[in-house]
User: What shape does this take?
Amino acid sequence: MFVLRGTVVTMRSGGEVLEQGAVYVGDDGLIAAVTPLDAVPAGFENASRLVAGGLIYPGLIDLHNHLMYNSLPLWTEPSRTVPWTSHNQWGRAPTYSAQISQPARLLGAAAGRALLRYVETRAIVGGTTSIQGNPRGAVPPDNDLIRNIDSEKLGTHDDFIRVSTLVADSKEALAPYAAAVQQGRGFIAHSAEGSDPKLRKEFQLLDEVGVVTPQLVAIHGGALTAADFARMKAGKSSLVWSPFSNYWLYGATADVATAKAAGVRLCIGSDWAPSGTRNVLWELKVADIWNKAQPAPVFTDEELVRLATSNPGEALSGVWPHPLGRIERGALADLIVVRRDHADVHRNLIAATEADVRLVIVGGRVRYGLRSLMKVVAPAATAISVGRLSRSIDYGDSTVTWKSVLAELEEIRKNPSAASARAAATFAALAAADETGFAAAVAGDEPMDSDGTFVLLPDMPAPELDSDLRRRGPAAATPPPVTIPPYEPLTTGPAWFDAVDANPFHNGLLSGLRGYMT
Assistant: This one.
């Protein structure tokens, strides 16, 4: 247990900001009290005291991602001269398999644990404490680095949430999800991604099977209309907005102004590296740019911050046993400390970059931050360089360091043939142990019973795998040796901005992100 002192931006419904506040973090991973709103709790007399030296916010929640692909660079299809109109198109692009699907498959099969640690590190340096988008395959353990929303158990044996990444196109395909929703489970589903009006049928199908309820978190909604948003509001469902990815691929984004006017709960997600931002902290900046470009602002700064804090927290609190996204007694102790450069606390977070993140706490455990703060409550944390910054990070395993994570991934990049051979041996052993279960896992029908083997499988389109599976069955699951691009840096910098500038689909809107580095 410890006490974190500083200015507390609670993100409660009343918007309380406590200039001389303190957050009491218990050993159970929950917030025991927030003073001066609550009484000082018993048992903290000898607890460590940390002076934040910045603003204390709830940890950021990234409610839309695909973690397996987040070591890859931004992607454009050279042969494409106009924006796509549907998510059903770009997965068959000529360069998609070689540049996205196959490299991700090889990394996930040969170094799944290291890959997951890499992408979680990339998220946490931007203040993310919970992230959606687990790959298929091995289930990430709780208390590893940050919360994996899809599989988080919160100290129980419950499976709280179901996820549909590849859009189900029939009532039969949606039946298991509908049954889970009826049992009180959450349901996160991609729906109507793109600008083609025909995509509305995907949301209408969700409605027909009865899952447009408070448990539904719909992702994208680019083709949805006022009528759809009215139905979503009536069902008390949530919508996740990923503006960067939408503009990058489709040159347009969801009509969030109409959704907000209808009263739909809006959240934000950074999507995946091939068409998304480094982390949700940068996705907030995309939302800010979009907001400023409107004839009249749609969101206040406080409302923008709520897209990554209290709004997704409310969406998840409907199925999780503890609240999150707000700093209040009984909530999950997921917190970040950000340097203060702006008088307005909400503008401060929107303008912040990775360099401003001073401390990240997940479930009451200090995971990342300034060494001067970390050494008090996380003495086992190891050094990590984040651009020009010196920080410390705690992976929960003293044998794991940022250098060891990079070294394992770099070995795959240097010798993809050896990596493919190791993956083949691993897959053969898994198939020999349970041929039926392995086949179902590779096909995406069942989770993998890996017996301790940490293999990650794609949750996004893999056209080369689909073709091979039809011809050869599960034996085709082994990814071939392919070129792995250099791993992306943890921070957002000039090379990434240059890549953003080169894509014409967003008509220069996203180029405004460079201005946040000045």
